[in-house]
Amino acid sequence: VKDKGRNSYHFFDSTMNETVLNKFALENDLRKAIEQDQLELYFQPKVNPLTHELVGAEVLLRWKHPERGMISPAIFIPVAEESGYIVELGQWVLKQACIINSGWQSQGMPIVPLAINMSSANFRHPDLLAGVQRSLDESKLLPSFLVLELTEGILMQDISSTIDTLQALKTMGVSLSVDDFGTGYSSLHYLKRFPIDELKIDRSFVQDIVTDPNDAAITAAIIGLAQNLKLSVVAEGVETTEQADFLLQRGCITMQGFLFARPMPKGEFERFMMQSLQM
Ligand code: C2E
Ligand code: CA
Ligand code: CA
Ligand code: CA
């Protein structure tokens, strides 16, 4: 019953987005969302299913719109990106994530890296490096506990500047993860030149690994690639024990998905962390 209550809100889907939501109204509302405290960071655990160890978490943004209810980031992030408001939004998420994680550490919670999703405009912003450094300094968070998730689409936009920026972030001590890996057009040649730490297998592959031989082959290939390049590999969207078993058999031991935990608000995630301490 509790579970049902927690998940009883529903997200607008994309067809509703077009017909019901007025993009401009949404854009306007979004500008007020931060100051009116309508945005909230949710946290989804990354776990090792063999040891039940909590190995990290991803920050996923939620917008509680006063009239429209919960709006999915799949809807409002693209709106923020188009309007340019994503710059401010992204800086806010980065700052909040660092403050929250540093707060947990000083409270004696399990020490885990926290990953944030980064949009292109934030990654390409001239203030990126200074902004990341400022967030780390002000929160007193060690850089190794900050992970930036960057899609391969973002990385491939301007390769030489990408390499410079990634290198500078690595020098700062921040971890770098390639998000939605396999869905874009990343060249394996460049992958080797990017100073990255982790590949994240997209949910679209994980979904059908048990039934679709193509997705199974792609997933196995990504895991092999990560192992050969000495990168960590994380599978997202793991929903069934069959999927988890497949991934474990292929050597992917870090997973994220509803099978283990949904994205949850801060208080609930803190209880999750405390439980993981007792295991
Ligand atoms: P993503 O980075 O690929 O994040 C994973 C998405 O998969 C999340 O959707 C998460 O809730 C969902 N998910 C995780 N496990 C499962 C599972 O087992 N089954 C299913 N069906 N779904 C699962 P969410 O939270 O709706 O976020 C959607 C996208 O919005 C994210 O995709 C990311 O691209 C973007 N996003 C979210 N927060 C931020 C943010 O703070 N900044 C930026 N730039 N983008 C964000
Ligand atoms: Ca992500
Ligand atoms: Ca994804
Ligand atoms: Ca498929």
From TrEMBL:
It comes from the Bacteria. This is cyclic-guanylate-specific phosphodiesterase. GO terms for molecular function: cyclic-guanylate-specific phosphodiesterase activity; DNA binding. Keywords: c-di-GMP, DNA-binding, Phosphoprotein, Transcription, Transcription regulation, Two-component regulatory system. The chain holds residues 420 to 698 of 710 of the full protein. GO terms for biological process: cellular response to nitric oxide; phosphorelay signal transduction system. The keyword Transcription applies. Residues 23-277 form the EAL domain.
